[in-house]
Amino acid sequence: MNILVVDDEKEIADVIELYLKNDQYNVLKFYTGQGALDCIASTKIDLAILDIMLPDVDGFQILKQIREKYTFPVIMLTAKTEYMDKITGLTLGADDYIPKPFNPLELVARVKAQIRRYTQYNEGTKDEGDVIDFGGLFLNRQSHECTYNEVPLTLTPIEFDILWLLCENRGKVISSEELFHKVWKEECYKNSNNTVMVHIRHLREKMNGPTGKSDFIKTVWGVGYKVEE
Description:
Number of helices: 8
Radius of gyration: 18 Å
CATH class of the largest domain: Alpha Beta
Shape: globular
Oligomer: single chain
Strand content: 15-25%
Strand order of the largest sheet: 2-1-3-4-5
Order of helices and strands: EHEHEHEHEHEEEEHHHEE
CATH topology of the largest domain: Rossmann fold
């Protein structure tokens, strides 16, 4: 698998490359944003690790351009700890973020988790449990296809997971804590509710943009989210 690593701090990029190669990943390493964009345009990428602060094109701009065409997982790597940087990355379609300094083994573990989540929608056998079709929404878990009122939507794996879980439990309110636990496969932490909220907002924007409808996912204040039967 091809892992794109973009960081202008050579020592950090080299450490990431070393640990990923130890797990048999093919690493495409760049110290500038433009080099990474050129690589994305010409090479199949399975996952990207992006630093935010780069000397030319920042990580947010690279992420934005990735999400215009691709759904592969993106992990943001940043020395910044400001809350809004995390929110910005998640809103633009990042799947995870890791603040510096970090444990390389944790980074590799998160890479593996994101790749597992992504590949489960592109492989496997098809059966009736792979499809949800109601209310103008069509989801195919095998092909990762999503259309809403006949308009194709490009969803990240986490966005797809959230929408699938809500639709699978339509009519039932799902709390932010349950969404986080089942989608991220982690225990909740202080900002997990905000993380879910950002992804819900991003989903609504994608569904509202081409269709003009923004009420498919409903907020039950103080409880959670649901879609109607």
